Amino acid sequence: MSVPPKLFSISSKRTVNSLSMKLGLSEPLAFTAPDALVAGVDEAGRGPLAGPVVAAAVVLDPARPIEGLADSKILPAHERRRLAREIRLNARAFAIALAHPGEIDGINILQATLLAMERAVLRLKLVPDLVRVDGTQIPKLTSLIAEPVIDGDAAVPAISAASILAKVCRDRLMCRWHRRYPLYGFDRNKGYATGEHLRALETHGPCAIHRASFEPVRRAREERQA
After folding, report:
1. Closest listed residue to residue 59, CA positions, set 137, 143, 136, 144
2. C-alpha distances out from residue 214 to 36, 162, 201, 203, Å
3. What are phi and psi of 43, to 5 degrees?
4. What pLDDT does residue 143 have?
5. What is the pTM of this model?
6. Is 86 strand, coil or helix?
7. Where are the alpha helices (DSSP H) in the chain?
8. What domains are defined for the chain?
9. What is the pLDDT of residue 223?
């Protein structure tokens, strides 16, 4: 029976690099093993005025490479959907999680994003040796090595895969919400502050999935209550 790798509680990229230097390594600790399980993590939906923030975690399988992985923001919708199917079929593990608008309003969008990321990592069927997170912040992951990677969604394939899964999942959720709240154009704007969306907010006020703590939503609610 194989012995699982020893894991450490790491809170920042600086800590990862410091630990590596102390051990005489030029790369983060988990990279010393050629078969290390590296999870990429990214989110979709920090900026919108409505809907959840969605995070995904992906462990790719080197034996089943996926061509075309890239930052989801530069991919057309049909290509994101195609790649999402490939990721689900070929990744060693993946998981998707979210934080609801109420959680976003309660703890702020940054903390809600980190919470969704934490949930996604903890739902993986495998325990990763290293978690690489797009951006400058990492979620609280007890007993796991984690590091932030600036522009990781363009540079790290596993993070690119996570960004694609998160984006495709969130877009589908917003299209479903459009059926319940058709006045805001969620099927087109996905909750972002487009002119159409802002005009609908002004005319109809916010709905149940709007983020009350976001300024345009707060202002629209106050104007209707005045």
Report:
1. 144
2. 40, 26, 12, 17
3. -130, 170
4. 87
5. 0.85
6. helix
7. 13-22, 77-90, 101-107, 109-123, 152-155, 157-180, 186-189, 195-204, 215-225
8. 13-182 (3.30.420.10)
9. 86
Q: How far apart are CA 133 and CA 158, in angstroms?
A: 10
Partners of 96 in the beta sheet? Answer: 56
CA dihedral 122, 140, 118, 42 (to 10 degrees): -120
- Per-10-residue mean pLDDT of the chain, 226 residues long, equals 35 40 42 78 98 98 96 96 98 98 98 98 96 96 93 96 98 98 98 98 97 97 84
pLDDT of residue 142: 86
What crossing angle do the helices spanning 157-180 and 77-90 adopt, rounded to 10°?
120
Cα-atom radius of gyration of the chain, to the nearest Å?
Answer: 19
Contact 57, 98 (CB under 8 A): no
Token pair in block for residue 225: 């209550």
Tokens of 83: 């790649």
DSSP states of 12-47: SHHHHHHHHHHTT-SS-GGGGSTT--EEEEEEE-SS
Sign of the torsion angle spanned by Cα atoms 179, 48, 107, 84: positive
- Rounded to 5°, angle at Cα 34 from 29 and 40: 70
Bridging pattern class, strands 53-59 and 93-99: antiparallel
Looking at residue 33, its pLDDT comes to 64
